[in-house]
């Protein structure tokens, strides 16, 4: 996974530049005031500091939609250019007005980086380490602040510190960022798939994953093109095809799903658990597998319960769903690639051309070709459609002629791992309408093993009401999210076109319409927006700005300024050094968070650290209300601030951005991220400009009291509304939101 790690590190330099800028202006403003005589012009002074915030807010309003249109990488390139121009103009600024312009341009670069770097990392990182990599922006930002404070501190010791040089140095690291975005960073594979550029997406994935076989993840990315859809939850018992399933499984051959492996004659049978159709609610998994505690909590969001039920049963080792099954896409990977499934090479003038990748329309009984991401052919046998998949890389699966793939009584399913213990499969399903006509459709299935693979008896005992016989044999209990494939169009079927497997609609055709605003009205998207916007608002009002504002005063009371003065450091330099030390304390805590983000999870870290934030703020309130000795007051305040900073950067600092980059569908991810980022920037502006007013009206104790109440509200919101997303593919996360949201909607009706 080194490719994805290095790409994430390179992308997070944009956040390092943001932290660098924030720290530099905090130190440089001391000298800017003197040169331009702004001691009696607090409005101009405030504008110099806040202009970058204004610029970030302005550009965020359209950055999401533009990134969905032109791509993530061009926007990161633009961010590096804006950083460079802003630093260059600040280096040469002759007056306040040019300085304000430079700060505005710099803010444009900050807004693009803060909004899009988490999205870019989420779309390129594998699910298993996505949380770790998406904590890098927080680490880079704090690291940039520390390095900048060190630079400004060193320059402040000079006889005549030059604020222009302090601010202009930003142009040097921005050149490095520009070079990396141009020559090293690839485009997001998910964005490429959303535009039908399949060949490029495959090449990027191969580079990021360090392997040739990425067809399974390609299939997942294609399925991520869908927004909404009628998703149901089903449960299956999966076992070898040559052994009978349990009597509690549905006996009908019509309901049997056969999964084929890469070896001749190797197949598994999946049958729905009896009564699974009655378990179609979003709470099916939770009600059957142990999340009853959450369900009994009033106002608990079904989405939280649903995600929790999956993580309760997630195998610790990340085992594959089908033992010895292998990747359905790895067969004959080294065969010559004769087909480029890309928007530039669409040949769908007739169904025969569309069905064949190599221009060969012949069907060989003894060589069925493996799934999935390709144009497919449909054969007729016994009056029923039997799907004969053919892969984009021309790989071949050798199957027996008499296998159930070639018999109309069974549905062919091809499966592959997609990360986080999930597998992707497909089946052709038919149902009879009220007027007696048969209506079919290609279904996409996300399968997840419930429990750990073992003996038939050991596996099935975990299912309530199933008595497992004594004989041996391996069976697996799996949960499934079943929905229509993103590449199957019922509208085209209604127009009389025959289905051509899941690739009835080519990805470039599915992506042509691009993001539309009505997609934001899908229940799953609206539900995810509620979570994203809510947690961004609560983060801003949790008190980080107030504590940062108060830190120099606290450390002054602790006697740090006296100590520094005794060793010959001037007051200006002392304040900068104090800020550098404060930032340095954050880095180890962020390192711990990076380690825990994919082990303990985002939700766990939030629920663990927010109570500590509340306790720290309450201690700060008490220390400012209750009369106590100077030493005791300084000790309590200093410890509380340090603990607050460390816990904030472990939880409430990075996690809102991580969650917002994970919970939206690919087609509208940029727009939704922009909405959440706008919430962040507006909240930042409100908190920044109301803090002095609140300090004058209710005092420091009152401000910290309000912040502690907000943190309590944040804990309740996280507990009831924020699910655990660790280790899950982005496309599966969005499906869960869609299922849970529709169940909430149905309950209200």
TrEMBL record:
<protein>
    <recommendedName>
        <fullName>Major facilitator superfamily (MFS) profile domain-containing protein</fullName>
    </recommendedName>
</protein>
<dbReference type="InterPro" id="IPR036259">
    <property type="entry name" value="MFS_trans_sf"/>
</dbReference>
<dbReference type="GO" id="GO:0022857">
    <property type="term" value="F:transmembrane transporter activity"/>
</dbReference>
<feature type="transmembrane region" description="Helical">
    <location>
        <begin position="576"/>
        <end position="597"/>
    </location>
</feature>
<feature type="transmembrane region" description="Helical">
    <location>
        <begin position="100"/>
        <end position="121"/>
    </location>
</feature>
<feature type="compositionally biased region" description="Basic and acidic residues">
    <location>
        <begin position="336"/>
        <end position="351"/>
    </location>
</feature>
<feature type="transmembrane region" description="Helical">
    <location>
        <begin position="6"/>
        <end position="32"/>
    </location>
</feature>
<keyword id="KW-0472">Membrane</keyword>
<dbReference type="InterPro" id="IPR020846">
    <property type="entry name" value="MFS_dom"/>
</dbReference>
<dbReference type="InterPro" id="IPR050814">
    <property type="entry name" value="Myo-inositol_Transporter"/>
</dbReference>
<dbReference type="Pfam" id="PF00083">
    <property type="entry name" value="Sugar_tr"/>
</dbReference>
<feature type="transmembrane region" description="Helical">
    <location>
        <begin position="165"/>
        <end position="185"/>
    </location>
</feature>
<feature type="transmembrane region" description="Helical">
    <location>
        <begin position="141"/>
        <end position="158"/>
    </location>
</feature>
<feature type="transmembrane region" description="Helical">
    <location>
        <begin position="697"/>
        <end position="720"/>
    </location>
</feature>
<dbReference type="InterPro" id="IPR005829">
    <property type="entry name" value="Sugar_transporter_CS"/>
</dbReference>
<feature type="transmembrane region" description="Helical">
    <location>
        <begin position="671"/>
        <end position="691"/>
    </location>
</feature>
<feature type="domain" description="Major facilitator superfamily (MFS) profile">
    <location>
        <begin position="7"/>
        <end position="726"/>
    </location>
</feature>
<dbReference type="InterPro" id="IPR003663">
    <property type="entry name" value="Sugar/inositol_transpt"/>
</dbReference>
<feature type="transmembrane region" description="Helical">
    <location>
        <begin position="604"/>
        <end position="628"/>
    </location>
</feature>
<dbReference type="InterPro" id="IPR005828">
    <property type="entry name" value="MFS_sugar_transport-like"/>
</dbReference>
<keyword id="KW-0597">Phosphoprotein</keyword>
<keyword id="KW-1133">Transmembrane helix</keyword>
<keyword id="KW-0812">Transmembrane</keyword>
<keyword id="KW-0813">Transport</keyword>
<feature type="transmembrane region" description="Helical">
    <location>
        <begin position="44"/>
        <end position="63"/>
    </location>
</feature>
<feature type="transmembrane region" description="Helical">
    <location>
        <begin position="634"/>
        <end position="659"/>
    </location>
</feature>
<feature type="region of interest" description="Disordered">
    <location>
        <begin position="333"/>
        <end position="363"/>
    </location>
</feature>
<comment type="similarity">
    <text>Belongs to the major facilitator superfamily. Sugar transporter (TC 2.A.1.1) family.</text>
</comment>
<dbReference type="GO" id="GO:0009705">
    <property type="term" value="C:plant-type vacuole membrane"/>
</dbReference>
<feature type="transmembrane region" description="Helical">
    <location>
        <begin position="75"/>
        <end position="93"/>
    </location>
</feature>
